[in-house]
Design goal:
Pfam families: RhoGEF (PF00621), SOS1_NGEF_PH (PF22697). InterPro entries: DBL_dom_sf (IPR035899), DH_dom (IPR000219), GDS_CDC24_CS (IPR001331), PH-like_dom_sf (IPR011993), PH_domain (IPR001849), RhoGEF_Guanine_NuclExch_SF (IPR051336), SOS1_NGEF_PH (IPR055251). GO terms for molecular function: guanyl-nucleotide exchange factor activity. Residues 1-155 form the DH domain. Residues 167-289 form the PH domain. The protein is an alpha+beta fold. The protein has two domains: 7-159, Dbl homology (DH) domain (Dbl Homology Domain, Chain A); 161-288, PH-domain like (Roll). The chain has nine helices and eight strands. An eight-stranded mixed beta sheet has the order 1-5-4-3-2-8-7-6. α4 (67-85) packs across α8 (135-158). The longest helix has 24 residues, at 135-158. The chain is flat.
Length: 289
């Protein structure tokens, strides 16, 4: 923040800033100042003498840690901007002054790495504190961190949905997302398809919200020689208030059915494992009840 972000306002360096970067500080750095302020409270350091207070520290800051979700959601925009102007003289000059071996993009990745490190540290602490006072709180803190990582991960997929006419933020909380084989069976007149097994399934990426289930098709695009970025083009949606669920499909314990409007439309969904299927069913059940 001091060696790069502040320097973008330095009059003597203005002429070195590429035009593509003008007024784009917020895009490049995201809410890094907010993350910096949060960590500047040194709360974890206060637990050095009393490690049993550590778990409480995480639980107390559960809401605050959502700032990482915001940071990660902005990351694709930040990376695109960096690809555009990362090799400019301005950044080279800042790096030279700081005497850093690594360029700025390596540091902009740190928050993403940091949010995934906490759960590893908490797991290690749990190993060392079996059945001692505070173990339950550590377990709760770990569950909280895993939850935050899941919601960061889900929201990264969610921002890649294209072609949905409405506003995804109005669909309620994003509970689950993932890829499945899907067969459809629609009652159109009397020529109802009897034997579904003969037909090739569609690959669909499902997003389960409290109000809606979205079916999307995953597309992977190569961005000028960089890693593939996935996007999800919207295909159709089902209102959760009008769906029903059949937990078991004959012949395959990884399949379940979601049906719409009294079985007018039936979607047979095949998960990659029985565990995954059961997780989805229990989330869908919660929504339906």
């Amino acid at each position: 923040l001091q060696g790069y972000a502040s320097e973008m306002d330095n009059p003597s360096l203005l002429h070195l800033i590429p035009s593509a970067l003008q007024n784009k500080k917020e895009i490049l750095f995201g809410n890094l100042p907010e993350i910096y302020e949060f960590h500047n409270r040194h709360e974890i350091e206060n637990c050095i003498e009393n490690p049993e207070l550590l778990a409480r520290c995480f639980l107390k800051r559960k809401e605050d840690l959502q700032i990482y979700e915001k940071y990660c959601q902005n990351k694709p925009r930040s990376e695109a901007l960096w690809r555009q102007c990362g090799d400019s003289i301005f950044f080279q000059e800042c790096q030279r002054k700081l005497d850093h071996k690594l360029s700025l993009d390596a540091y902009l990745l740190k928050p993403v790495q940091r949010i995934t490190k906490y759960q590893l540290l908490l797991k290690e602490m749990l190993k060392c504190s079996k059945n001692s006072e505070g173990t339950a709180e550590l377990e709760e803190a770990l569950a909280t961190m895993l939850d935050i990582i899941k919601s960061v991960n889900d929201s990264m997929h969610q921002i890649a949905i294209t072609g949905y006419e409405g506003d995804v933020s109005e669909l309620g909380k994003l509970l689950m997302q993932g890829s499945f084989n899907v067969w459809t069976d629609h009652k159109k007149g009397h020529n109802k398809v009897k034997d579904l097994a003969r037909f090739k399934p569609m690959q669909r990426h499902l997003f389960l919200y409290t109000k809606m289930l979205l079916f999307c098709k995953k597309r992977e695009e190569n961005t000028d020689g960089h890693e593939k970025t996935a996007s999800y083009s919207f295909k159709n949606s089902l209102k959760m208030s009008t769906v029903g669920i059949t937990e078991n499909v004959k012949g395959d314990n990884k399949k379940f059915e979601i049906w719409y409007n009294g079985r007018e439309e039936v979607y047979i969904i095949q998960a990659s494992s029985v565990e995954l299927k059961n997780t989805w069913i229990s989330e869908i059940r919660k929504v339906l009840t």
